[in-house]
Structures are given as C-alpha cells and as structure tokens.
Write a structure and sequence with these properties.
The protein is an alpha/beta fold. The two termini are 47 Å apart. The relative contact order is 0.09.
Length: 570
Amino acid sequence: MKIRSLSIRNFRGISELAWAIPNANIVCLIGRGDSTKSTILEALRRLFYPQWNLSFDDADFHLCDPSRHIRIEAILGDLPDAFRDLEKYGHWLCGWNLETRKLMIDPGEGLEDVLRIRLDVADDLEPSWSIIKNAEDEGVQFKASDRAKVAVSLIGAVSDRHLTWSRGSILSQLTETENITSSLTSVARAAKAALDNRRGADLADFDAVARAAETTARALGVNVAASYKTHLDTDAINVRIGGLALHDGDMPLRQLGLGSKRMLTTGLQKQALREQHITLFDEVEVGLEPHRIARLLKHFKEDATGQYFLTTHSPVVLRELNVGDLHIVHRNGGLINVVAAKKPAIAEAVQGRIRVGAEAFLAPKIVVCEGATEVGFLRGLDDYWHTSEHMESFAYRGVALFDANGAGKIKDIAENIKELGYDVAVLADSDAPNLFSEADAQALRDASITVTKWDNELSIEERIFFDVPWAGVMSSFEVAREIWGNDQSLLDQLRTQFGQDFNRDFARWVDTRELRTALGKAAKTGDWFKRQAWSQEWALVIAGHLRDEAIRGCDLVRQLDGLRNWIDDV
C-alpha cells in the first residue's frame, strides 16, 4: 500500500497542510528546523496507529487550542484485494488519477482504487478513525486490525524497543506467538533449576529461615510432606516477553551506537513485514557516518516493497538521493506547503545545484553569490555583525549562501531556487554586463528576488577599494600582504594598473582616486581575495569601517544595508 495524498488540520505546529504525493518509493522532506517535517511523520503514524488506545493531549492541538479539532486524512492506494472486497471497504472506494494527482469520488477507468482515511480528534481527546468518500460523510469505522495491515511504522531517535521481544516490536513480528509462550515457560523452569544447583552458595541464609519455619509448622501440627526450603515460585516468576532481547555474545544490542541500532532496525523491519510497508524515518542521518548513510539509502532504493518517508538536515543525504526524492517543506505560520524539487522545467538544473550546494537547500533563505569572493565576504560580515554589532547571525535568520561560480549562472540559479519556494537574494558584480546585465537584475527583482549589484560596472574588489575610508584601503592591502607573503608581486601588479609614476613605497601612499582604482583592479585581476577564507578575512578587517559616517551614502554601504534589511526581513 502507498500513501497518495495527505492533509492535516490543527495538529501541533500545522494549521493546514494539503499535499498530493508523487508515486515514489522514497519521499524525503527537507527544510529548516521547526518547519514541521517531523510533525508530518507523526501525523502519518497516528493516522495508521494499529491499536485503539492512542492518547492525545491539549498540546497536540494547533496553538494548544482543543476547540479547533484535529483532522488528519490520507488517500491510500495500491490496495490489497481484501480492502477492495465489498464485504470490507469496497463500497467506500474512490478513484485516484496518478498523473494529475487528483481524487475522484468514485472509481473509474484509468483511475486507481483508493480509500480516503480520516482521523478526527475533538476536545474530548478521543480519536476516531473512519473511511469516507465525501468530506461530509461520517463514513465507516477503520478498524485497528486493518490499520495494522497498512504496516506504518516510525523509526525515530529511540530504537531500543525493536531490539527486544516487547509487544508490537519487530522481533515479536518475526516470532510465532505460540513459540514465545512455550519458551517463556521453559525459561522460568530453567531459572528454578539453576538456582537449585547453587543452593549451598546462594540460599544458605534463606534456607535457615525455611528450617525455622518448618520447626514452627511441626510444633503447631501443620503437616510437612518433605522439608521446607527456599525456592522460586514458577507462577510468580515474571519472565516477561519484554525481558528478552537480542545480544551479541553477552552484550545486549541496545548498547550499540544509535546509528547502528537504527540501521539494524530498518533491515529487520523489511524482513519482518515481508510484504508492502510504509516506513517513517525521522532524521535518517542521526548517528551515521557518510558511508553508512549511503548504504542505508541504497537499502531503501532497493526495497521495492516499501514506501519510505524520510526527514533530514544532512547535505550528505541530499547528495545521495535524486531530485525526484526531495520535497521542501515551507512554513508560513501554521500554513505548510510542500514543494517537490523535481519540477519539470528545472529538474535537471536543480539536481546539479544540489550536488554542488546541498547545504543551501536546508535553509529557507538563500543568497546566490557570484563566486567564492562574495561567499567569503558575506561570511566575514556575518561574523563581524554578530560578534561586534550584536546583530542576529545568518544561521539564526535561516540564511544560507550559494556559490554560483560565475556571473553567467546567477540568473538561472536564482530563478530555479525561487521556483522551489525559497526566499532568494543575489550578490553580484556589475563588471561583466554581457554575463549578468541590468536587464537580468531587473528580471529577478520583478520575480521578488532581492538583487545587490554594484553601480558603475565594478567588481566587489573595485567597489570596496573605491568606497571604504583610506584606513580601510590600507588595511585591505595589509590583508593581501599577509595572504600572499610576496610584496614585490603585489607591487608589480599595482604598477601594471597604475602606470609609470607608481610609488612602490606603500608606507608613503596618500589617498588618490588613481591609486584606489589601481588597487581595485590589481586585487581583481590578481585574485587577491578569490578564496572564501581570504575574502572572509578581508571582510573582518574592513567591516568596522563600513560604519564610518563619511561613507554612509556610498554605493557599497547602501547596497549592503539593503541586503541586511532582506536578511532581517525589514
């Protein structure tokens, strides 16, 4: 069986979600923390909970308001014959169009037979499961035994239970019930025999009390058939099924690392279920190294019997999966929107973007930077703004940086990412209008993308050397000297840009437009700050100069203020 669609109302952080799910075996939810990815998995678990005693409390309602009832619905497809039988739910079948992902009230030609499953929870906290056709239907009860047949299970942060024979665990599913009962009786008897063999060593004090009790009994005329002794009462020995657990030698497997336990649980689950199943895996990367993440995901891909719903915060997972597996969860208050990364016009391009910049796709706001210099520069500004000016960090504001690796790629990348529902900004030079023109920038602005692009066809190096105070210019040159460790090479590059009258004694330089121009061009053509680490160091040195009142109206400060306003949602 497979879930074709999911809708959620008033459950925890979700006020409303409507999501038509592609026909795929792997559905991986990505997005920033607190975007309700885990809540979506929990809603699915509760919708198909295999027992009747599922508890809710007021905190499960959106905004903790039980007057707004919880409603979770799913369209369940790929049904077994037993569910389609008229004696079961055959009268309640609907039709699902796999291509358009639309629900029809009745089955029909070219449509898949599906069931519309509903879980309602009112302020009395009593869950009610039903199968309906129309939204207004009361429907028919969806029995716990049938919910169990859907085989929905959640593998979360704690997997210890599944490595024991406790009720409902995977190991219990792998074991015949009659054998368990018989084996537990034998275990109790074995415990009694083992203790009897160690009577002299372990029960001497207890047997002394037993002999005293026997003496009292005989004195009072109580019949003693043999003699009193201490022993285990097999009826009172509580050898519970949950007390049996998997061991590696003498070590219980619950002492394995978290990642190992989750991997083992996943493999056992596939073996236990044998048939179709729906597995919910929260934060699939937890406790696993990259190579074991890859192995686990390969296991998912090879399992034709399962539909896997995953959540992740790991770029490793994104790189191992295909773009068709990824779905971005966006949250606007309680309104949740799930966007498929595989959009027809941009799927191939997005796949490549994820390969080279997976980290960015885990944040809600992305700055598309022209190259490594811009990425490093913004990282340096972020460090300075946060530590020295006590501004909120990029991480707190949910901002990630994406290296476009060239001006000619900026427009397409920004448009692609915007189409996936992200909030997007651009930081670009203006010195290559044939690659990224003002018309390109305006097209992005028209698409609600914030564009930071220097005036007068300048690179970031030229813009900074033109606009910062003279002390900032000299500090920038000192950074370049420290990075390169070769004064003569830097001065040769400057002389090329300045001309014959260039003064190589930088201790005697004075502020002129000609020297600023030469410094900017030399820094650009000589790649003085082209690595992220270099430009980050540069930004940290000059950031303090950006607050100089003498340059408040310059292009550099004005553009960076605009970008900062976007970061802060001003």
